[in-house]
Design a protein that fits this description.
Oligomer: single chain
Structural class: alpha+beta
Strand order of the largest sheet: 2-3-4-1-5-8-7-6
Largest sheet: 8 strands, mixed
CATH superfamily: 2,3-Dihydroxybiphenyl 1,2-Dioxygenase, domain 1
CATH topology: 2,3-Dihydroxybiphenyl 1,2-Dioxygenase, domain 1
Length: 294
């Protein structure tokens, strides 16, 4: 494994895989029932999972080519109240072990490691599903930061095949898991950015962990910080008095657009009173999320 890091060196490369967001029930139902989301915007997947770490839970996913937005309509699986999370994945075999060694050597971030197992049809025993690095974001953090590497068992179970060089590409397992290969006929291409509302300690822990893998940080006006890595910009709006959560996801769109009536820009689609998807230009959209108690 010799992929270059975001900082230009050699090492494991965490690429954004999916973003988890907790919606209120009204917004979640509106999204899941939306003809526009399922027919024109992205590939969709309703998931029922039973994890050795998280237990049983269900989600509604909206996918592009390599990335997924995972929407929860009930509490995210955890002993603490969660509002969302960032999940990165490694495509090159052996990256999880290398990433743990890199984190240990840096001393910049604490983490928990586990080999997550799942129950699959046709087997009485849980199968190894992915290597999980859960970054310690502080006690009772409402946000998660995961770095995952899927197993060969996972790939075989869903009918995905590694690339000729052995990499387990995000696109390949999304195609297999969704059952609908990416063909560019829907609007969503991929997640390009995410914005979080976080406290000072959480912002520092996120920045420290991702700096190990080459994410570059810059201070912005108004107390915001920006982290830039491979294919993803992360904005941290630092406010110790605000609720910590995902506030916005930026999405790159297929330039030619899907077949069907033209969607004039800007265009806005509302889901309940707490979420809206804004098509700003033919190549860019933003999905915004309001506080659930608003």
């Amino acid at each position: 494994m010799t992929s270059g890091s975001a900082g230009g060196g050699q090492g494991p490369v965490p690429r954004i895989d999916h973003i988890m967001v907790l919606l209120d029930e009204e917004a979640h139902q509106d999204v899941s029932r939306s003809d526009f989301i399922g027919e024109r915007f992205g590939r969709i997947k309703r998931k029922e999972a039973d994890s050795s770490v998280a237990g049983a839970y269900s989600t509604f996913g909206v996918a592009g080519e390599h990335t997924l937005i995972e929407l929860f309509g009930t509490a995210l699986p955890s002993t603490s109240p969660l509002t969302g999370g960032l999940v990165f994945s490694f495509e090159e075999p052996g990256s999880s072990a290398a990433a743990r060694a890199q984190l240990d050597a840096s001393g910049r971030a604490k983490y928990h490691y586990d080999l997550v197992r799942r129950t699959v049809d046709g087997s009485d025993e849980q199968q190894p599903w992915y290597h999980l690095i859960s970054v310690d974001l502080g006690e009772a953090s409402p946000l998660l930061l995961f770095l995952n590497e899927v197993t060969d068992e996972y790939f075989r179970s869903i009918g995905a095949r590694p690339a000729p060089d052995g990499t387990r590409r995000r696109r390949d397992y999304l195609d297999a898991a969704l059952g609908t290969p990416y063909d560019g006929t829907r609007m969503m291409r991929d997640i390009t950015g995410v914005r979080l509302s976080v406290g000072t300690e959480r912002a520092q822990r996120i920045a420290d962990a991702l700096a190990v893998f080459g994410y570059r940080a810059a201070e912005r006006e108004g107390g915001s910080r920006e982290l830039r890595g491979p294919g993803l910009d992360i904005r941290l709006d630092v406010d110790d008095a605000a609720g910590e959560r995902v506030t916005e996801i930026e999405i790159g769109l297929v330039s030619q657009g899907p077949p069907g009536p033209e969607i004039y820009t800007p265009a806005e689609f509302r889901f309940g009173s707490s979420s809206r998807l804004v098509i700003e230009t033919p190549g860019r959209a933003r999905w915004l999320f309001e506080p659930m108690d608003r």
